[in-house]
Amino acid sequence: MKRLLKEYSLITIGVILVAIALELFFFPNHIACGGVSGLALVINNILGIEPGIVMIVFNVILFAVAFIFIGGSFGIKSIYAAFGLSIILSAIEKCTTPIAITDNLILATIFGSALLAMGTAIMYTQDATTGGTSITAKILNKYCNIDFGKSLVISDSVVILLAMYTFGVELGLFGLLSVYLTGNLIDKFIDGFNLSKQVMVFTKKEELVVNYITKDVDRGCTVFYGKGGYTKEQNCVILTILSRTQFIQLKQFMKEHDPEAFITVNETTEVLGQGFKNILE
Questions:
Q1: What one-character-per-residue DSSP string does the chain give?
Q2: Of 15, 84, 186, 248, most Cβ neighbours within 10 A?
Q3: Is domain 196-268 given the CATH code 3.30.70.120 in the classification?
Q4: Rounded Cα–Cα distance for residues 229 and 217 (Å)
Q5: What residues does 196 pair with on adjacent strands?
Q6: Average confidence score pLDDT of the chain
Q7: pLDDT digit string (tens) for 98-138?
Q8: Per-residue confidence band for 166, with pLDDT thresholds at 50, 70 and 90
Q9: CA 238, CA 221: separation in Å to the nearest integer?
Q10: In the chain, where are the structural domains located?
Q11: Please, are residues 182 and 113 in contact by the beta-carbon 8 Å criterion?
Q12: CA torsion through residues 50, 51, 54, 56, sign
């Protein structure tokens, strides 16, 4: 229950960040950032229908299509995120009058894309998406043998072309820039969230270090044995994967108890298995 509460809390934070990006940066400046949200902005301008309501309708249709053509892989979390975003946007439109934080289109595109990417990345780490064009991209990927990334670009490009027709070429190009920035920033944020430290400790105090890692830091480790190329002395090498906070703990411990140890550290963007992300996910 505690884990479930944490997951849905993070998804909610992600949804709120996406909603802020759309309502305070993209929608007031008529920048279509791709996806269902961009399509909702176009339809809002043509027909005057609230973007939140448009997104609810399109997400219902797209999720129905996903279950028919893809299967039930879009779980409860994605449905919660998709409809949660639509409801929040609709509530903002009804209860307030959102205004752009900045009228500068370059600033709006950059900061809106950053917030959008951050929110999307947070949801992605909890195995949730807001649906939209990722569904059409999966369908193209499955039935047309087009790479998922290329399929997503195709889906978003259709929205951008509609935006160009509705708002003009200049605003459409800002939407295209947003699609590019958001895609790249999402990858960067995801890598940052998943960042861990791969640590190798060369030490003569094997038992002391292993006990600290397994009992105090509460991480597993693997022990190798070797011989120094120069000293010809037998040595112990301890390999472990730690979070940044745990590495600081280990570094302080080694400084106090084994200052002669030799430590190498590498950053790793993804760790699968016991104690980390499930390898089956």
A1: -HHHHHHHHHHHHHHHHHHHHIIIIITTTT---SHHHHHHHHHHHHH---HHHHHHHHHHHHHHHHHHHT-TTS-HHHHHHHHHHHHHHHHHHHH-----S---HHHHHHHHHHHHHHHHHHHHHTT----THHHHHHHHHHHH---HHHHHHHHHHHHHHHHHHHH-HHHHHHHHHHHHHHHHHHHHHHHHHT-EEEEEEEES-HHHHHHIIIIIS----EEEEEE-TTT--EEEEEEEEE-HHHHHHHHHHHHHH-TT-EEEEEEES--BSTTSB-TT-
A2: 15
A3: yes
A4: 31
A5: 268
A6: 84
A7: 788 998 999 999 999 999 989 988 887 787 777 777 777 77
A8: confident
A9: 7
A10: 2-193, 196-268
A11: yes
A12: negative
| Tokens 């909890």, located at residue | 126
Q: How far is CA 64 from CA 33, 238, 278, in A?
A: 24, 51, 28
Residue 63: closest CA among 158, 129, 161, 153: 129
Residue 141 has pLDDT above 80, yes or no: no
Q: What's the pLDDT band for 224 if we cut at 50, 70, 90? A: very high
Q: How confident is the model at residue 149 (pLDDT cuts 50, 70, 90)?
A: low
Q: What is the pLDDT of residues 42-92, one digit of tens each?
A: 888 888 888 888 888 888 888 888 777 766 655 788 888 888 888 898 888
Mean pLDDT highest for which of 81-95, 141-155, 181-195, 201-215? Answer: 201-215
